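Researcher: I'm preparing a figure for a lab meeting and need a structural model of a single chain. I don't have an experimental structure, so a prediction will have to do for now. The sequence is pasted below. Please return the structure as tokens so I can convert it later.
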Amino acid sequence: MALVTAKGVEVRVGNKRLLHDVDLRIEAGEIVTVIGPNGAGKSTLLKAIIGAVPIGSGRIDKRAGLKIGYTPQKIQLEKTMPISVGRFLSLAGSFSKGARSEVLDKTDVIRLRDAQMTDLSGGEFQRVLLARALLRKPDLLILDEPTQGLDQPAEARFYRLLAEVRKETGAAVLMVSHDLHVVMAQSDQVVCLNGHVCCSGAPAQVSVDPSYKELFGVRAELALYEHNHDHSHDHSHDHGEHSHD
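Model: Understood. Here is the structure written out token by token.
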């Protein structure tokens, strides 16, 4: 059975319809990426799946006992209220110190356990958020633009880490991303959203869909070129790194 199945989902806030007729299916272990322009309802869809916003119609079914790890797009931390990485993780629930160390180790930030959250770089902050999401040993990781604001090397490191985590834990990933090139290279399924699902399927399917090209224009063509160009290098490097910049 699929981890999550959404059928005909509609979300309204007041008189505004944010989402309508949204169908989505997430299978165990796959990476599903949601793309679309600003205001397309991408974050709203993730929040509907975790139950943070109510749906007006349609239904969302989750596998019994499904464990979800979620990282929101933004977490505001008060600069005047110091909080260490270790303390931040301890607020996530009653997990043992060993469990907290394990996820910090897995996300390669264990050396930052005593660092202040407000002193972390963007990439370090995202790794700590991922560590927090992994505490529950989730079947499904839901990540809302996890690489927003990161420079390219930090972004590449984060995606490599995510691939390692999925391989090691078997968790499925549902992610919102703006990086079309990475989306096309890393995803099993791409969902193109603009208030409703414009197109969805394997990256190769979506990349030739007229509605994808209409939404993203030149960026869509460039992402496809880069993906095809990189693909020939994929098997010659151990960590998915490519021989060009």
